[in-house]
């Protein structure tokens, strides 16, 4: 469990600036620097040349990943495609030179990075919280803010060593509740003794 002070405010501007200029995770590729006033696609920026990067593991063509743009057997529609939900909750994609544009604006990156799909990569993040309390069940107040302290379950990522909320990708046609239970059990409870297929089948049977 980790404690978080509810009075602390996260600086979104600093976070966004860092994300747009830092190295892409697990790579030596640095995004093209994007000034705050150039993020929106509505702002003219003829000199914008984003870094084209897709991770080698994605380029190997795992079964769950889309082929590269331009592949003869790949015609993305960016709508519901069989069991795969290819629409974005913010609306339709603007497609420019066959590439779908990120809804938030310029990111300094062209390509999928570590993501498999060109359209939304649906993920499930189980968030489990509780108010910090003593052994008798009484809620403990923060000594400075005098407000309740919220605790949440987090995991330490093996790839980067950072603390994070458990997360997993939703398979095509899979119920979100199955993904949530599976990922929480795998990442937070070390539920790794049995095969993936057996565990998912048991979870599905319980729904």
What is the secondary structure topology, with strand pairs?
Layout: E1 2-4, H1 12-21, E2 51-54, H2 56-59, E3 95-96, E4 99-100, E5 109-113, E6 123-124, E7 129-131, E8 150-152, E9 155-156, E10 163-164, E11 168-169, H3 176-188, H4 196-206
Parallel strand pairs: 2-5
Antiparallel strand pairs: 1-8, 3-4, 6-11, 7-8, 9-10
Helix pairs in contact: 3-4
* CA radius of gyration: 21 Å
| Largest beta sheet: strand ordering | 1-8-7
The end-to-end span amounts to 28 Å
Mean pLDDT: 79
Number of helical regions: 4
User: What's the order of the H and E elements?
Assistant: EHEHEEEEEEEEEHH
Low-confidence parts, pLDDT < 50 over ≥5 residues? 1-15
Helix content: 10-25%
Question: Summarize this, please?
Answer:
The chain has four helices and eleven strands. It is α+β, with helices and mostly antiparallel strands and 207 residues long. Helix 3 crosses helix 4.
Describe the structure.
By secondary structure, this protein is of the alpha+beta class. The protein has 2 domains: 9-121, no CATH class; 124-206, Nucleoside Triphosphate Pyrophosphohydrolase (Alpha-Beta Complex), CATH 3.90.79.10. It has 4 helices and 11 strands; from the N terminus they run βαβαβββββββββαα. It has helices at residues 12-21, 56-59, 176-188, 196-206; strands spanning 2-4, 51-54, 95-96, 99-100, 109-113, 123-124, 129-131, 150-152, 155-156, 163-164, 168-169. Strands 1-8-7 form a 3-stranded antiparallel beta sheet, with no helix packed on it. A two-stranded parallel ribbon has the order 2-5. The chain has a two-stranded antiparallel sheet with strand order 3-4. Strand 9 (155-156) and strand 10 form a beta hairpin. It starts with a strand and ends with a helix.
């Amino acid at each position: 469990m980790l404690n978080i002070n509810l009075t602390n405010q996260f600086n979104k501007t600093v976070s966004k600036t860092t994300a747009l200029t830092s190295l892409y995770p697990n790579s030596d590729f640095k995004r093209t620097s994007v000034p705050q006033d150039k993020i929106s696609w509505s702002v003219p920026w003829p000199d914008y040349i984003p870094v084209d990067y897709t991770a080698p593991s994605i380029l190997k063509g795992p079964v769950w990943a889309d082929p590269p743009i331009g592949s003869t057997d790949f015609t993305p529609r960016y709508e519901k495609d069989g069991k795969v939900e290819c629409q974005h909750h913010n609306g339709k994609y603007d497609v420019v030179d066959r590439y779908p544009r990120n809804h938030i604006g310029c990111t300094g990156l062209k390509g999928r990075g570590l993501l498999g799909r060109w359209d939304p990569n649906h993920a499930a993040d189980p968030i489990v919280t509780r108010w910090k309390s003593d052994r008798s069940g009484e809620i403990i107040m923060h000594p400075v803010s005098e407000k309740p302290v919220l605790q949440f379950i987090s995991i330490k990522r093996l790839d980067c060593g950072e603390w994070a909320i458990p997360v997993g990708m939703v398979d095509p046609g899979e119920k979100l509740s199955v993904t949530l239970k599976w990922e929480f059990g795998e990442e937070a409870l070390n539920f790794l003794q049995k095969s993936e297929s057996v565990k998912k089948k048991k979870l599905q049977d319980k729904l």
